[in-house]
Amino acid sequence: MSEPTADSRLVADLVSFRLNGCDVQLSVTDDMPLLYALRNDLACRSVRFGCGDGVCGACTVVVDGRAMKSCDMPVSAAQGSQVTTMEGHADDPLLARLVEAVVDHQAAQCGYCVPGIVLAARALIAAEPGAGRARIAQALDRNLCRCGAHGRLLDALCDVSAKEAAQ
User: Fold this and answer.
1) How many other β-carbons are positioned within 10 Å of the β-carbon of residue 63?
2) What angle do CA 97, 74, 5 make, to 5 degrees?
3) Which of 15, 55, 64, 151 shows the greatest Cβ crowding within 10 Å of its Cβ?
């Protein structure tokens, strides 16, 4: 078997997945990050470029129930998956409750990091309803906020987590 050439990476692949409850199909190069497809091809502006290395969490999305960094995930890895961004909050009751709690707690300052933080919390709380403050903080460890809003964000997310456990 021969080694792939630089030009072979540029071959377009057809990728299909569900985005916020809707089927999508894209023709993309196999090395395109999911982040670029979401922002540029599918108009999901809540998914943000931060570091490009999967470290800051601004690009976090939920893929098949798991929080994933979309900047270092190729679109091809989303094939057949369910992808959720903040644009899907109208059709996702848990995500809608998290957004409402962030607003109620006035937990967003500049808002750049908030979509990634809320989506990471959504994945955790869906998997572990009633997760406490320490567990939520641990799950958000790789989501950076330069505004210092983590305290209020944690308060908001903890409120939703406690209510999920009570249901």
Assistant:
1) 19
2) 175
3) 15
Query: Residue 165 is which amino acid?
Result: A
Please give the distance of CA 9 from its chain centroid, rounded to a whole number. 26
Burial 90-117 (b: 16+ CB within 10 A, else e): eebebbebbbebbeebebbeeebbbbbb
Locate tokens 């409120």: which residue? 159
Give the tokens for residue 96: 């809608």
Rounded to whole angstroms, the Cα distance separating 85 from 57 reads: 13
Q: Confidence band (pLDDT; 50, 70, 90) for 10?
A: low
C-alpha closest to that of 121 among 150, 90, 146, 147: 150
Going across the sheet that includes 66-69, the strands are 22-29, 12-19, 82-84, 60-63, 66-69
Measured CA to CA, the distance from residue 89 to residue 106 in angstroms comes to 18
Q: Can you tell me the mean pLDDT for 140-149? A: 88
Instruction: Please compute the mean of the pLDDT values over residues 60-70 and round it to a whole number.
Output: 97
